Amino acid sequence: MPRRDAFTDLRDPLPLTDGEENKPQDSTILMRQPLDLIPIADLKKKRLRKWEQIHRFETVTYRGIPRQVVEQIVEIAQRLSVPRDEVVRAFLEYGVKLYRTEKLSLFAYPKAQRMTLFPEGGQGIPVLPSQKIKDQNW
Q1: What is the pLDDT of residues 38-53, one digit of tens each?
Q2: 85: closest CA among 54, 45, 57?
Q3: Per-domain boundaries in the chain
Q4: 33 close to 10: Cβ distance less than 8 angstroms
Q5: What is the pTM of this model?
């Protein structure tokens, strides 16, 4: 069986009969190109970010930081009329400066799952984070 041209139907949209061959061709019939058969992808709908804009100040989490410290950071930020991130950045920069000048010492207490640093209290005793009380009544 001989090979056929896959685009024959595109070049000849309507087969001409003997009577139509002598008639002038209508110029409104355009040849369909193969790319015209491929559907165009839908344009992506632009996402509305109103909720994120409204709640952008509520989406910060401080993992492993006691709630009291987070509240103090928020209070300082509100008093200074700056974002919380700026207060945290200032404390981080200050802490790094103290660490480099050896005015702040950090001690690592390795655990199996995570490596944790705890600051020292007034007598040189490590201050451990408070343990959460788990509800055992399930």
Answers
A1: 888 888 888 888 888 8
A2: 57
A3: 50-118
A4: yes
A5: 0.41
